[in-house]
Design a protein that fits this description.
91 residues, mainly alpha
């Protein structure tokens, strides 16, 4: 699945995704994001802790979005290939 990452690597630096986060798989990032949201919703954290959790959640959401965008690009490419193949067969 690392091929999905390479498609969006040019935008990760500009989007503020760290090198360590870039190595996270979609499921890992999603699971950590769920935990961050759970902790924020539970409350009981200081303002500073809440802000740190929020910032981490934003970073994780970017990682997930990058994976999903990569998957969408691969799907679109595969569909375009199928369309081209079908169009060539009809000619």
């Amino acid at each position: 699945m690392t091929s999905n990452v390479s498609e969006a690597e040019g935008t990760t630096e500009a989007a503020g995704v760290s090198e360590a986060d870039r190595a996270l798989g979609y499921e890992q990032a999603r699971d950590e994001l769920i935990e961050v949201v759970r902790r924020l919703e539970a409350g009981g954290t200081t303002l500073e802790e809440s802000l740190a959790l929020w910032e981490r959640g934003e970073e994780l959401a970017k990682v997930c979005r990058r994976w999903l965008d990569g998957a969408r690009a691969r799907l679109d490419a595969a569909l375009a290939e199928d369309d081209e193949g079908e169009g060539g067969a009809e000619s």
